[in-house]
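Fold this sequence, please.
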Amino acid sequence: MNVITVARFTFREALKKKVVLAAGILSVVFLALYALGFHFFVDESARTAAANSNPATYFARQFGVLVMMGLYVVNFFGGLLAIFTAVGTISGEIESGTLHAVVPKPVRRWEIVVGKWLGYAVMLSVYVFGMAWGVMGLAWVQNGYMPSEPLNGSLLMVLVSLLLLSLTFAGSAMFSTVTNGIVVFMLYGIASVGGMVEGMGTIIKSDLLVNIGIITSLLVPSDAIWKAATYFLQPRVFDLIPIPTPFSSVSPPSIPMVVYAAGYCAVVLLGGIRLFQRRDL
C-alpha cells in the first residue's frame, strides 16, 4: 500500500534529520541533568520534611512539582519537534523539486500527505511517550514517586504533538517553509498565552479573560490538552490548591475538548490534503 510505503520511508528519513539527532542528544542531556537535580532535591527535601507536620503530603507536593516541571519541558520539546521536523514536508519538497519526481507516478497526493503524517506521527509518539516515561521513571527510581495516572497523561501529551503536527502539515501545503514555521510557532505560543490568560481569569473571576482563553483553545487546543494531561499527572494533593498554573489543572479534563482536539487533528490534516491537491507544482 502506497500510504504505508511513504510512511516507512518518511520515518526512516525523519530519524536521519539533523534536527532529530540534535533533539535526541539534547534530550538525553536533559534527562541526565534532571536525574542529577532530582537526586539533590530528594536529599534536601529529606532534611526539611522533618519539620513539616505532614511529611507524606509535603513529599507528594514537592516531588509532584518537580515531575510536572520535567513533563512540561518534555511537552514543549515535543511541540517544537513536531513543528520543526515537518515544517517543510510539503513546501520544502515543492521548492526543491523532489515532488516532481514522485507525483507523476501512481501515487495519489493524499497518499503522500497521509503517509508522511503517519511517519512523523510514529516518530513523535515514540519520542514524547518515551521522554515522559523517562522523567516519571527517574522520579520512581530515585524516590518511588509516580503520578496518579501516568498512561492517560502521557497519551494526552502525545496528542498535543500530533495536533501541532497536523497544523504544520496544513501550513506546509499553504505557505513557504519559513512562513509556515513562523505561523505555526506563533500559534503554539498564542495557545500557551491563552491558557495563562484563562488561568488568570479563573483566579480573579473574570469571565472576559476566561472566554478569551476558551476561544484561544478552540483556535489551537494544544494548551487545553496539556492542561488535561496535567490533571492525570499531578499529585492529588494539587486538587486542594485551586490555583491554576502551567504545571497543574484545577478541574478534571473536559472529554468534549479531548474529542474536539482529536477531531481538530483530522480536520486540519484533511484541509492540508485539500490544499495540496489544489496546489500547482
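Residues 19 and 85 are 7 Å apart (CA to CA). Residues 2-278 form one domain.
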